[in-house]
Amino acid sequence: MRQRSFLTCLAVLLGVLGVTAGCGSSSTGSDDPQVIKYGMYEPGTDAGYLLMAQEKGFFEKHGAKVEVVKFKSAQQAFPALLSGQVDIIQGNPSEALLAKQRGADIKFIGSTMPGLNYVIYAKPGHKDLASLSGATVGISTPTALPAIVAKEMLSQAGVDLKTVKFVNSGGSPDRYKAVVSGQIDAASSPLDFIAQARKDNVTVLAKARDVVPDYPRYALIARSDVLKRAPDAVTGLIAGLVEGIRYALDHEDEANALTAKALSLPADAEEITSTYTEYRDGGYLAANGSIPVRQIEYLADLQQRLGLAEAPVDTASLIDDSFRAKAIADLGEVPETYYGAKES
């Protein structure tokens, strides 16, 4: 029950299906039914992987007309998907499960980066997650991924969440800076700041992939009407994204240059080069676009255990692997890279 309140707030948020995103970037003005409006969160140091398909023209190569729309958060992306403002999004499966419980007709059709890239940063004096009992921990909103991940990681370490003060410390960079300045004891943020943490005498207590390996980051989520309306374009979108991931894995310099362009940083900046290596060697990426089925089932079970759902979500009814399978048949299958794939 300790997480029910903030997850319930998320369910309420997703109930506002008619809300438009408003803050997305890029045009969504096409009336061509074969154009796929693809929504994604604004990338960080993962830009070299997630933007490569668009950069190299891989969507067009596979016969897909794609308009990329960037959002700041799930609070923008999911209402946009459900209201028809975009057709497919790259998002966290937890929000999709909650939307399904409220009647949304959506499917999981693939993935790009299913590995969860979050870590817990802490100021000096904290040696492990258990030491955060009684601490002040920075999150964003109570319903967002940073909060959920932090609470799950602390719970796994045996921390009584009632002893922890969770405070909204802003976006990812702001949460990290709040640790550096000593305003808070710890924060849940992406691994983008690991290189800087070594310079700032900030401790990386744990990575989410090591503590909650079943918690996924991204899946591709589509409305069912889009799958019926433009099946070939959907297949082409997935093929383009997968080829982009593979290309980035094989072309480190180009991937880092793309990230540098997206973030307005030098391509040899340590935060770019080190996170490229972490994503590649840490197994965060899905080189075959595989749907993280077991991880989605884990999230559905978590929501039920927390009392958010009265009955289990039929996750099997949410999975449609046919489009990804066609894309991989054209591309050819390669050894899987995702750290959770062996048990999926």
Q: Can you walk me through this structure?
A:
- The strands form two sheets. Strands 2-1-3-10-4 form a five-stranded mixed beta sheet, sandwiched between helices. The chain has a five-stranded mixed beta sheet with strand order 7-6-8-5-9.
- Residues 1-29 have low confidence and may be disordered.
- By secondary structure, the chain is α/β, with parallel strands linked by helices.
- The chain contains 16 helices and ten strands.
- Helix 7 (145-156) links the parallel strand 6 (136-139) and strand 7.
- The protein has two domains: 4-115 and 216-343, D-Maltodextrin-Binding Protein, domain 2, CATH 3.40.190.10; 118-211, Periplasmic binding protein-like II (D-Maltodextrin-Binding Protein, domain 2), CATH 3.40.190.10.
- The protein has helices at 4-15, 47-50, 52-56, 58-61, 74-83, 93-101, 145-156, 172-180, 194-200, 208-211, 224-229, 231-250, 252-263, 270-281, 293-305, 322-331, and strands at residues 35-41, 65-71, 88-91, 106-110, 118-122, 136-139, 165-168, 186-190, 203-207, 219-223.
- The longest helix is centred in the C-terminal third of the chain and has 20 residues, at 231-250.
